[in-house]
What does this fold into?
Amino acid sequence: MTTKGHVYVIDDDEAMRDSLNFLLDSSGFGVTLFDNALSFLDALPGLAFGCVVSDIRMPGLDGIELLKRTKAQNSPFPILIMTGHGDVPLAVEAMKLGAVDFLEKPFEDDRLVTMIEAAIRQAEPVAKNEAVAHDIAARVTSLSPRERQVMVALIAGLSNKLIAREYDISPRTIEVYRANVMTKMQANSLSELVRLAMRAGLIKD
It folds into this structure.
């Protein structure tokens, strides 16, 4: 059972992948291995949040290009870069592109584990917030134009009767729209609907 989170290892060196798989698995992480950055990027949309550990020098898509692409996608996954001896200028470039840290090979096992734990701990709250924001945005998108109008009126404090008058619809029909809004937004109360609307940016400060 995974207790510490997910780690995605990207390295074209099979021996290195196997070594990291053994180390991280025995340290309590769920480990997924990729032999190139492109296959990781293809899989990224369906992956659970975790820390990426990638070599910087790889054929095809290297670590620098990987960072550029994950940054362009606003990925919340923290990325640790592994570098060879003398690759400090590349490592500095990686940090500028958003890598949370880098390690020079060969490195101590304990240091890598500590860095992964810290990276996950720091990035997880942001990733969770983003996931929640995306989920709420999807709920808002699922509303019909009329349902959205009714939701905006509800969070503005209008009663069913006033909303009905505003849109020249019967109060009974407004009740149906209101029920649909609460169901689609997964809100159990008006106060919860207001909180969701605030998270979705529908209520400005």
Observations:
- The CA atoms of residues 163 and 169 lie 8 Å apart.
